[in-house]
Amino acid sequence: EAKRLGGNRFRVFEPSYRTVADSRRDLIRDLREAVRDQYFTLQYQPVVNAQTRQLVGFEALARWTHPVLGPISPDRFIRLAEEAGLMHELGSSLLRQACLTAVRWPEPLWVSVNISVEQLYHRNFIATLKNNLEQTMLPPSRLQLEVTETIFMEADATTYGVLQSLQALGVDVVLDDFGKGYSSLGYLRFFPFSKIKLDASFVRDMLSDPRSAAIVSSVIALAVDLGVAVTAEGVETTEYFERLRDKGCTETQGYLFGRPMKQQNASCLVEMLTRKESFIMDSASTALATN
Ligand code: C2E
Ligand code: MG
Ligand code: MG
Ligand code: MG
Q1: Whose CA is nearest to atom 42 of ligand 1?
Q2: What is the pLDDT of residues 97-121, one digit of tens each?
Q3: Spatial distance between the Cα atoms of 66 and 171, rounded to a whole number of angstroms
């Protein structure tokens, strides 16, 4: 077939081939521009004390709306930014945004920021973080940094040192997506994380699958024995919440108490709860604040 088309054959195959390569290259170019123009925003998802139902803080989640392609998932653009060497700059600017937002919330509400591998191992990471805390005047105790076990794939002699510097600064280091990978248990021995975030996949299956339920119970028991907090991710209904609470889970996060929301809506929610003076959350207050 290609031969029959003779000299034109590349015109037949080239376009789709070029489209893939081009679109990736274009996306990285757009990403670079967006980083330069600080076009990324954060949304904030409430984290709730599982025993008291009180709001304790928010996880900051990055968002990017491409002018033509629309919203791009953070899983995708974070990976691209890492590959393009843009993650230190992007991460620093997001960290700054998060600190500026959180410093306006009443004590002791905290913000939790995801940190990727490239960012953590950048030679200026700790200095940039210190700077950020000083300039925004956010007390380090109100900042938490979430890392996944992927940081251990590139672990070297400096890994422990970086994590320790964070802890020395008074910033909590949280192990995200616990159980999703292969050897999370070993990492708990390597470093004293302040908190474990139980991956949403276990939570999702815990009501239908006894094995997942057993794993959830064990991780919670493990956290209790280690003396660290444990947050369940992906809590979407009251049934999940109550089960996790009864198992002794420390915190929950999920659509039940609120989706990731714009900064203004998060502040609005905080204001409403401050007026109530108890900080006890229900889905209604979230709905009110975000409408
Ligand atoms: P993550 O840190 O594990 O964040 C939790 C993800 O679960 C978020 O997805 C959140 O929107 C989603 N989620 C929360 N509650 C529920 C629920 O009840 N049900 C369901 N189905 N999903 C829920 P999102 O925002 O798409 O972020 C995906 C991942 O991208 C994050 O996973 C994190 O690894 C990464 N990410 C997001 N923002 C940043 C960032 O600023 N820096 C870095 N390095 N990574 C980020
Ligand atoms: Mg996270
Ligand atoms: Mg997670
Ligand atoms: Mg994740």
Answers
A1: 114
A2: 999 999 999 999 999 999 999 999 9
A3: 33
Which ligand sits closest to the CA of 74? 1
Q: Which ligand is in closest contact with the Cα of 197?
A: 3
Q: Which residues pair with 48 in a beta bridge?
A: 55, 252
* pTM check: above 0.90: yes
For residue 139, give the 3-state DSSP assignment. Answer: coil
Phi, psi of 224 (to 5 degrees): -60, -45
Q: Ligand 1: which of 96, 114, 197 to mutate, judged by most atoms within 8 Å of the beta carbon?
A: 114
Position 143, amino acid: L
Q: Is the CB of 118 under 6 A from ligand 1?
A: no
Ligand 1 binding pocket includes 82 (Cβ within 6 Å): no
Distance from the alpha carbon of residue 77 to the mean position of ligand 4, in angstroms: 13
Tokens coding 98: 């998060």
pLDDT, tens digit (0-9, with 9 covering 90-100), for 134-152: 999 999 999 999 999 888 8
176 C-alpha to ligand 3 centroid (Å): 5
For ligand 1, whether the C-beta of 78 sits within 6 Å is yes
- Spatial contact of 281 and 53, defined as CB atoms under 8 Å apart: yes
C-beta of residue 70 within 8 angstroms of C-beta of residue 102:
no
What would the two tokens of residue 155 be? 């672990």
- The residue behind tokens 């990285």 is 28
Radius of gyration of the chain (CA): 21
Distance, CA of 111 to chain centre: 10
